[in-house]
Amino acid sequence: MTAESDAAIAANRFGLGARPGELAIVGTDARGWLKSQLHAGAPAVTADGLQSTAQILTGAEPILAERRAAQRARADAATSEDSAVATLAMRLPQYLRPIYLTECRARWRAALDSGRPLVERLVHFWSNHFAVSVDKQAVLGIAGSFEREAIRPHVLGRFHDLLLAVESHPAMLLYLDNQQSVGPNSALARRAAGRGRTLGLNENLAREILELHTLGVDGGYTQTEVTSFARVLTGWSLGGGKGPLASGTVGTFEFRSLVHEPGAQTVLGRRYDEGDQAQGLAVLADLATAPATAHHIATKLARHFIADEPPPDAVARIARAFERSGGDLPTVYAALIDTPQAWDGSTSKFKTPQDYLLSIGRGLDLPPENEPRVMGAFELLGQRPFAPGSPAGWPDRSSDWDGASELMKRIELSDAVAQKLGDRRAAVQLAPQLLGATLTAATRQSITRAASPSQALALLLTAPEFMRR
User: Fold this and answer.
1) How far is CA 136 from the centre of its chain?
2) Inter-axis angle of helices 427-435 and 441-448, nearest 10
3) What is the pTM of this model?
4) pLDDT digits over 347-361, tens only?
5) 433 with 11: CB under 8 angstroms?
């Protein structure tokens, strides 16, 4: 491989798509350029209107209280009239959706403007690994703040700290309903039983931590471990509430001992003594450094950065770095960067819609006024921000994104962009700046022979080497 090829791989496979002039900045030391991005914390996202999770959920409280009051009034009146309740039900999404859009635009602009695109890609990678989805209204307004508060600050730290921040964040707790999980022998469950009510254990958070966040589906756990771990995680909730159960600050983590299952629990063969929140912290600490976790994370990183079917020796190399460093993420990323297969000259990874749109935005230097249209483009291509639809996150294989219908949508989008910008963006000059040594003779020739500037730009944006990374 040549230095020119390495520069294109660094900017387009490890980064978010080259900006004009970026390949020259990468220069002849592509690996050094990437590793230099790992020496400081992830840049914060700043934009007018961004709020903390606590602020957002505090703002939602009066709306929820009013809706609950209307529901009680309807029940007391024993009437089927629900127009007032329906009207109030609309107020919550009306409050949350502008917050969601503000977060999406801030995220988009941060990715476009970043001079450390590897770090931004890693933020997106971990956000998808620890996925929450705005399809669930409870997290519509806080998916963005979840990424800013739990993922971004820890993406260049230890996996253990990232894991703890994620699992204790209100967005994850609400998304997986852990605030509803009650230990069967907890004080609250016993109180409810005395009144003829049964409160149940919710296993969602425990299952997804084991299956998706740490060990992986083949990580050696059983349903027994899921249930035991779910008991450990009872009490992991968020502040607020009403009446005698109210405690803590709205929108922040709150451990509720009233619902925690008492007694020791055994998870993956290890006994964890009763210890309220400390019991869960101990389990997470062990999961964070487990060999199965190292292999699972290494596999996902290799799939994302190298190939849909990760080379086993590449996975092993990354996993060893994870284990030996105790989950120090910059060490893990450095091992990934040093993996020979990561520098294969073939553009083996088909860009997801998010990758594709970001590479267009960076390559064409789209101005801020384009951002409302960009949100529509995400919808059109099928990857609405923070909306994977399940805790498994968005898929990361070409076969999930390269169907005929999906390709036609990209062609139509590229044509629309080219029609608007074609006479202000010279594709002949842009192509080598964005694609470097991966630019093929066939693409160069088709751009040169285009009948118009807009056609030339459309050909660049739909070239196979632009569609892949």
Assistant:
1) 15
2) 160
3) 0.95
4) 779 999 999 999 999
5) no
Question: For 50, what's the count of Cα atoms within 13 Å in the CB-facing half-sphere?
Answer: 17
Nearest partner of 61 among 150, 170, 184, judged by Cα: 170
Residue whose tokens read 């791989």: 9
**HSE-up of 220 (CA within 13 Å, CB side)?**
11
Task: List the structure tokens of 123.
Answer: 């933020």
Joined together, the tokens standing for residue 261 give: 């299952």
304: nearest Cα among 127, 44, 107, 154: 127
Q: Whole-angstrom Cα distance, residue 43 to residue 30? A: 21
> Which CA distances in Å does 461 have to 78, 434, 445?
60, 10, 14
How far, in Å, are 153, 315, 341, 349 from residue 303 at the CA level? 24, 9, 11, 9
Q: Encoding tokens for residue 449?
A: 């022979």
* Residue ranges with strand state E in 355-461: none
Q: What are the residues whose beta carbons fall under 8 Å from the beta carbon of 47, sequence distance 6 or more?
A: 102, 105, 106, 109
With CA atoms as reference, report the closest residue to 237 among 315, 302, 300, 181. 181
Q: Say if residues 414 and 462 touch (Cβ distance below 8 Å).
A: yes
Q: ∠ at Cα 360 (358, 361), nearest 5°? A: 65
Q: CA separation (Å) from 366 to 208, 361, 425?
A: 38, 5, 11
Q: What percent of the chain has pLDDT over 70?
A: 96
Q: Could you report the per-residue pLDDT of 185-207, keeping only the tens digit for each? A: 999 999 999 999 989 999 999 99
Give 97-113 as a DSSP string: HHHHHHHHHHHHHHHHH
Separation between Cα atoms, residue 92 and residue 138, nearest integer Å: 10
Within a 10 A sphere around the Cβ of 243, how many other Cβ atoms?
5
pLDDT above 80 for 35: yes
Which two three-digit tokens encode residue 419?
């029609």
The DSSP annotation for 129-141 comes to: HT---TTSGGGTT
**Cα 97 to Cα 2, 92, 271, distances in angstroms:** 47, 9, 44
Q: How many CB atoms lie within 10 A of CB 84?
A: 14
* Residue matched to tokens 């999406």: 104
**For residue 336, what are the contacts with CB-CB under 8 A and spacing of at least 6?**
301, 302, 305, 318, 342
Residue listed under structure tokens 């050909």: 459
